[in-house]
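Human: For the file, kindly provide a plain-text protein record giving the amino acid sequence and the backbone structure tokens, at your earliest convenience.
Assistant:
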Amino acid sequence: MKLRLLGLAALLSLTPSALAAGPNVQARAYLVVDGRDGHVLAAEAPRQKLPIASITKLMTVLVALESTKTTDVVTVSPLAASIGESSINLRAGERITVHDLIEASLIQSANDAAWALAYHVGRGDAGRFVRVMNIRARQWGLADTRFVRPDGLDVFGHLSSARDVTELARIAMRKPLIRSLVGEQTETISGGRRLHTWNDLLGAFPGLVGVKTGHTRAAGWSQVAAARATGVTVYATLLGGPTRAQRNADLASLLRYGLGRFRLVQLVRPENVYARTGTPYGQGKLDLVTEGALRYTARVDQRFVERIVAPTVVELPVRKGDPLGEVRVFDRGRLVVRTPLVASRSVERPGPLGRARWYSGETARNVWSWVS
């Protein structure tokens, strides 16, 4: 095995803008991460425990999806129907599907929908539902998080952090239903209710795919967002912005900064000879190459280790394009990409006469080496 360290200069051509300082943000806390592995790109007070308002509903929906089918029908409890502020005006005794309640919770951030889910899953006991929310938080490593309500309205002790919110969003976005709904700007559900998102960046910020806003007096203007570009998803969480407009502007700046920390690089080049392996019967060295280029979206500060796995000698015959080894590229011990190494040409196995001549030649050379 051959081990080679690739310097960053061999992979990237850094520009001054790529190394610029992080944006100036007016918020109590923020965090920007690489969505693939959670690597921190920028942060300010990421572990500070703060109110997160309706971002809470990401956990509410995750817990609901664990215990129900989206086709299940919920009978709205009087307590859920009485919840105010952002709502879809549910009526006590109304029957509505789990799917519609999830849509209302995620798109319009409806508090009554979140409570209807909690009472339904908790079998009439919302406290039981909240306990499961906190169990999941502990299981998923959200150490700064404690839930008291399913809707996120201000109450003592209902706290999280930019780090935990970001991880919660990454977990939620693994669910296809959540991933599709948080990208919707409007939707219509039962009763002809027209839902409208509070996410002002949807449709305005290129590549934005979600995920959840939140606002209360205690939480300020908060949001966790995800945007895709050049083969990567960046998550940015901002907690405690002073105004809706400032939150939107700062969050857009954080996303632009995060996306600007990446470049599309060529980790594997088809013209390179990555290894030379021996062949029997004096057929010479065989070059091992890759069949094509392999591109990867890399952070500007990444260093890669390339490992070449190839045999010292191959058996014949070999056909051009036969896989005979592998290129593996690692980032801090994590396998990033792998691609086969193939024979650059065909090599036939000599016939009986050719093999006999080779053995005779080898014998003669060995005898000569002894007598000399």
Summary: Residues 265-352 form a domain with the Peptidoglycan synthesis regulatory factor (PBP3), Domain 2 fold (CATH 2.60.410.10). The chain has ten helices and 17 strands. Confidence is low (pLDDT under 50) at residues 1-20. The chain has two domains: 8-260, 265-352.
